[in-house]
Specification:
Layout: E1 3-7, H1 20-26, E2 31-33, H2 42-51, E3 55-60, H3 80-97, E4 101-103, H4 115-133, E5 139-143, H5 158-168, E6 173-178, H6 179-185, H7 189-196, E7 200-205, H8 221-230, E8 236-239
Parallel strand pairs: 1-2, 1-8, 2-3, 3-4, 4-5, 5-6, 6-7, 7-8
Helix pairs in contact: 2-3, 3-4, 4-5
The structure holds the ligand O=C(O)C(=O)[C@@H](O)CO and magnesium ion.
C-alpha cells in the first residue's frame, strides 16, 4: 500500500504553514513533504515533526530568485558557486530533518540559450550533490515539470529526466515521478511506470487537468496505486495537489489508506 505524504505547501492552506503539521497528523498522515524549509530554522521544523509524530520525506533545493523568473539554479552555466551553496544548505536541512530525499531543482532555460550547456552544468552539479549526500544515505531526485506549469524548464518529459539521471550515473540519483506532469507530457502511465521501474524513488500525485484531489479527472489513480504495489515500489507518494475546497473535506479518497 502506498505511503502517502501530505504536501504542506499545497494542502492545509486553511492554516499558517507551521500549523499544517498538526493538521496533517490529525487528518491521518504519517509523512509530509513541502517545497522549501529555508524560511524556518531546521530545529523549529524538526520539533514540529517530532511533536506530531511525522516524518519529513522530501523537500527541494532553493528555487533562487523566483520574482525574476528563476526556478532552480543547478543548471545555469556560471552559477555553480550559487548552486553548490544551495546544495550544501539543503544537505544541512536534510540532516537536521532526517529527510531521506532532496529534489534538486534544475532551471528555466531562456529560449535564446544553449540547452546543452544547461544540461552539462546540471549533470556536474548533481554529481557534486550526489557525492556529498552519499555518505549520509540521502538520495537525490530530479523532476520533469510540464510546460503549462513551468514553461521552458530544463526537464519536461520523464524520459529527459531519466536521460540526465543515467548521465549523472550515481547510485543515489533518481527520477521524481510526478504523475500530474507525466500525464501532461508523456501519457501512457502504466507503461511509463514499468519503464521507469527501479529508476524513481519519489512519486507525486494530483488529478489532471485541474491538479486537484486524485479522485477526479483523467487519471485512474486506484489503478496507478495498484501498479506501484505490483512493481514493488516502496518509497513515498506525495500528495502535491491543490484541494478543490477545504483540505479535510476533500480527503475522502484517503480514508481507506489510513492506518
Ligand atoms: O511543481 C512540482 O511538481 C514540484 O514538485 C515542485 O516541487 C517543483 O516545481
Ligand atoms: Mg511535483
Amino acid at each position: 500500500m502506498p505511503k502517502f505524504a501530505a504536501n504542506l505547501t499545497m494542502m492545509f492552506n486553511e492554516v499558517p504553514f507551521l500549523d499544517r503539521f498538526e493538521a496533517a497528523a490529525k487528518a491521518g498522515f504519517k509523512y509530509v513533504e513541502y517545497l522549501w524549509p529555508y524560511d524556518y530554522p531546521a530545529e523549529e521544523l524538526k520539533a514540529k515533526l517530532d511533536q506530531y509524530g511525522l516524518k519529513q520525506v522530501l523537500f527541494n533545493t532553493s528555487a533562487g530568485d523566483v520574482a525574476n523568473g528563476e526556478w532552480g539554479l543547478a543548471a545555469i552555466p556560471n552559477r555553480e558557486a550559487d548552486a553548490r551553496r544551495d546544495i550544501d544548505q539543503a544537505l544541512e536541512y536534510a540532516l537536521a530533518l532526517q529527510c531521506p530525499t532532496v529534489h534538486i531543482m534544475a532551471a528555466v532555460v531562456p529560449e535564446r540559450e544553449n540547452r546543452s550547456a544547461y544540461e552539462n552544468t546540471f549533470v556536474e552539479n548533481v554529481r557534486y550533490a550526489a557525492e556529498k549526500f552519499k555518505p549520509h544515505g540521502i538520495n537525490i531526485c530530479l523532476e520533469a515539470l510540464s510546460p503549462e506549469v513551468k514553461p521552458n524548464y530544463l526537464l519536461k518529459s520523464q524520459f529527459d529526466t531519466l536521460a540526465i539521471v543515467e548521465k549523472v550515473d550515481r547510485d543515489n540519483v533518481f527520477v521524481q515521478l510526478d504523475y500530474f506532469h507525466a500525464q501532461n507530457v508523456d501519457g501512457n502511465l502504466a507503461r511509463l511506470t514499468d519503464k521507469l521501474k527501479g529508476k524513481f524513488s519519489h512519486v507525486q500525485i494530483a488529478s489532471v487537468p485541474d491538479r486537484h484531489e486524485p479522485d477526479e479527472g483523467e487519471i485512474n489513480y486506484q489503478y496507478i496505486f495498484d501498479k506501484l504495489d505490483e512493481i514493488g515500489y516502496d518509497d513515498y507518494v506525495g500528495c502535491e495537489y491543490k484541494p478543490r475546497g477545504d483540505t479535510v473535506a476533500g480527503l475522502g479518497w484517503f480514508e481507506k489508506y489510513k492506518n
